[in-house]
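Researcher: Please generate the 3D structure of the following complex. Treat every line as part of one assembly.
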Amino acid sequence: MSINVKRLTAVVVGLGMVGTLAACGSSDGGQGSGDSKTVTLVSHDSWAVSKDVLAAFEKQSGYKVDVLKDGDAGQAVNKAILTKDNPQGDVFFGVDNTLLSRALDNGLFQSYEPKGSGTIKAEYRVDQDKHRVTPIDTGDICVNYDRKYFADHELEPPKGFDDLVEPQYKNLLVTENASASSPGLGFLLGTAAQYGDTGWEGYWKKLKANGVKVVDGWEQAYNEEFSGSAGGKKAKGDRPLVVSYASSPPAEVVFADPKPSTAPTGVAEGTCFRQVEYAGLLGNAKNTKGGKALLDFLISKRFQEDMPLNMFVYPVTEGAQVPPEFVKYGPQAKDPETMDPAKIADHRDQWVKSWTSLVLK
Amino acid sequence: MDLTRTEVAARRRGAAARFGLLAAPVAFFAVFFAYPVAAIVARGLKTDGTWHLARIGEVLAQSDVRHVLWFTTWQALVSTALTLLVALPGAYVFARFDFPGKQVLRAVVTVPFVLPTVVVGTAFLALVGRGGLLDELWGVRLDTTVWAILLAHVFFNYAVVVRTVGGLWAQLDPRQEEAARMLGASQLKAWRQVTLPALAPAVAAAALMVFLFTFTSFGVVQILGGPTFSTLEVEIYRQTSEIFDLSTAAVLTLIQFAAVGAILAVHAWTVRRRETALRLVDASVTARRPRGAGQWALLGGVLVTVAVLLVLPLAVLVQRSLDAPGFGYYRALTSEDGGVFLVPPIEAIGNSLSYAVAATLIAVLIGGLAAIALTRRDAGRFVRGFDALLMLPLGVSAVTVGFGFLISLDEPPLDLRSSWILVPLAQALVGVPFVVRTMLPVLRAVDVRLREAASVLGASPWRVWREVDLPLVRRALLIAAGFAFAVSLGEFGATVFIARPDRPTLPVAVARLLGRPGDFNYGQAMALSTILMVVCAVALLVLERLRTDRTGEF
Amino acid sequence: MLLALREATVRFGGRAVLDAVDLEVAQHEIVCVLGPSGSGKSTLLRAVAGLQPLDSGRVMLDGHDQAGLPAHRRGVGLMFQDHQLFPQRDVGGNVAFGLRMHGEPKRRQAERVQELLDLVGLPGARRRAVAALSGGEQQRVALARALAPSPRLLMLDEPLGQLDRSLRERLVVELKELFGRLGTTVLAVTHDQGEAFALADRVVVMRDGRIAQSGTPLEVWQRPADAFVARFLGFENVVEATVGTEAADTPWGKVPVPEDAPQGTRTLLVRPAGVRLVPADVGLRCTVAARTFRGTHVTVHLQPPDAPRLEAACALRDAPETGDEVGVEFDAAEIVVLA
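Model: Done. Output below.
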């Protein structure tokens, strides 16, 4: 018997070692939203905030903010729904108008109307009777164009959806898979808003005939295919039109060294679809008090003004100032396409399915 | 009465020892693999306590699902055939020729295998995509065609064939072929009659491995194939992560499970055949410098293939990381970036290394114990089945495991969702099969009587292992550890789901950087990819130095 | 008794490899188990060592039942057929292994290693790699390694099996002297009768997992227990015969038997020395079928008409040529009636 005891001891010691490692790690890992001094924000990968702004909130509220970035926007929502009985945090930020119904229908959030909600512009408000979600930021999904290409070819960049099916723009546009990518879906919804519930299919037939290219995700479209982005230039991208964000041009400036005087890319203003991102208090949040404070913070002026250069989005509250370079290189679209989240919820899956068989097959 | 007591005691002792050894691996796989996967499948197919197995039929009846199944299968078959075609000459050259730089080259061809697909996909686009070499030379572009997928699969799996087949080929006694020639066989005939049958099980094992990897291909298909091509694995990812149709995802997971299980069963069978008595010699005595125009041409051809297909894409990556003057992208990695990670991207190197070390420890412990248990002569059918079971994580979608972790490891004592240990655990899941596959043949090759000799001299079973097995398998153990380390470094699919934002690993950091517009993000992604590549290459190069004559499949 | 086996039985599948074996070895005794391959002699050693569990029966050492006691706690030594030296250790490391396992202090280990290497005639080999040793040297190191922890019983499995003949003959004498000097209790197995007879105080012949005969080398040699033992010892002239008071009826005709021989249908052994060659017209007429040179004598194979071949031992100069016709007479002193 003693042999086996010894062998088992070795195994136990070995496992214990791993356990010890785990213990060491968790002590600096700052986990556990059960601790009421910590409030946990669950978000997607694009979440970003300036350090001093967050520190000011932590100091003023007395809560330490833990951020859990849980994949891209769609994944983060899906994960939050999967774990809703035992959520990973207290507040979820980052569900947009295209997926809002999925979150609400699955009972992801509990009601809370943050302090200062009155400053939110009326056009962004939803769920007014239950206050389960609060709009935090907005942005536009638009066709971006490569300035140099159109200058070199002495061609006017397209202005609206109609232009994109014109012969002079043949084989110039790249977009994303609407079933896999949030800008891809936004662009599809934009065309549906423009041409109506049935008319969009005819438009896409023409777009397809005019040589639209569809890739799986934004990364490939923007960094590989689009000729105007930094990555695309390196990859010798040959599509001067891409479905991206209205805020992409300022990013090309902010993240360049030396910074150019004008953005290398521009936005076709008539092709925009408005995206609004919401946050809410998670249904089974362990620290509801902290969560509420955090939601208040998300619509505070300080945070709203900090967002643009961190997440490349626009504020939703009245009176929040947008940085000058942001205004200069990436003005907000004046008259974007919009769609009621309820309508999106009703049609999304069917449209994506029809779109897939129409465009991809 | 007394007579049977001896027998019972001995049998019981054997069973207890086997149980003790297997307990940790079984528990590990049950808790960190079977349970999470079962949980996510149940979430999809079970509502209010009833199973909806009819969904299986419904999903299978969908024409696009059948289309995915068909594409998954045929592309895997063609990829496997192409890989064998391209890599078998390479296996021969690495096995039988001596040439300067051989060790370095063998490490280089293995680098793609452990690099994350997101990096390799980007690099590979530079070869067959727009403005790539083919485009510049002949105006040929293969991206978003099935050819890009097939070629990338060759790129990824070249090393599997070279290492599995080449490893055995190098040890086949050339005198056997010589004997056949003395009996009147032509060179070709001698090869066909003597060498090929001896190699066949290794070729079959390699082919099955490549088939498994390409059947479950994810990143390559997603990045290079565009939205029109979809394997089962890609479809599971889409259904789970994007469309959020968990019941369809669950059915697809079950289908893939069945297919992978079948592949692994055949693989286990061929591997067992491979271990049948072959006359093996030290690899160093079978290789010699090439002689004659034909052999030099073969060597040259293989080197050109390796250069174009494997080195070139990696070189493009390096070149793009150096585009900014004065290593600008590399320097940018050290500056704090509040946006993407909350930490300077350079810290991803430290994170990756510490995760990989932890994952390696776990994989070596679990894989090592499993290998020891599987080596025992009295290992029964159940234990041998466990051998194949250990390989299953290689064939199950990372998104399934990742989502499974999320909903199953959320209660004490297993409330690990926010613990950092989850990352190494997920990586170890992929590392364990490599450890087992590397150590098992070496352990099985240790002469049982050597152990008995030590035992009779007074060594307890534990001492026997330490004094006899360990010194003999130490190099294999190091190699296994190195492989687990490199695989952990490159693991992306599961890590991206569970890595905390303030502790990104290198592949996760690369993917996040690629996900943002702007020159510096792209450049930094290339720079980090290059660093990752160098770390992997160095790890593999160290392994080459350790390579023994009997080091398993990889 | 130092070692006692009681009805020790080991089955592989349905076959009994050891079949109710009873065996005893006394202190300081050297016992050699002799048998063809497959007779179960190696299994016997492994069972005593604790490497092979018994299906039934008992192994007793110093009167204690060894059931359930693992190999490393039985305090016996085993020298393997092909030595099984640890390849990753040098000679000194191999010899010291058992001492280390028994927790001897380092200094004592070093002394003992030197002592044993001196004993086996390899005084300077301590730092040498085992791979660089010749077969004979390996065998000496293996012996030193097995002796180092001073086992109460030393077991040798085909100790000289792989060595060439001259070395084997030299070493067997050395071993016998060494064991005598040290008072080692030895249980060896071999298939080579010469080795067994040279080494053993007592020889045990095994057949199909059973003991066929046990006795001093002289006893076994002089009176093999049965036809199997006789044939295994190398005797060819073994036939069925009807034994009378003075002579036996055999295929070779009337053959004289010793006076006190048991009567009836028996197996008869005629030693080669008991086959005397006489002129062709006297005795049993035979043709010389073959001659085998044995160094000190010649073995002549004789073919009588309608009877099994006979083997005769002749002095070198008396040996007839192949094809010669000779006559044969039998010497009663060299004839044994087997049980």
